[in-house]
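FORM 7B: Structural annotation worksheet

SECTION A. Query
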Amino acid sequence: MLAALRIEDATREEVATRFDLTLRRVDTVLRQALEHCAELAGRSVQGGVRRGRNPVATRASSAAIR
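SECTION B. Predicted structure
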């Protein structure tokens, strides 16, 4: 999938169709692949799939911010 996106220059939609995946899954697999490559190269990853997502603001928390 990484090769299709980066070497073959396929779009996310083309890759999703080729591998019978959702766009969300294509994005997740791409992030995982890039994180894996960074770790193999000895680079630090500035985010990625292992890091937790930011919590979604609820109406109550949004009102408290204002």
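SECTION C. Observations
The radius of gyration is 16 Å. The mean pLDDT is 80.

SECTION D. Sign-off
Analyst initials: ____
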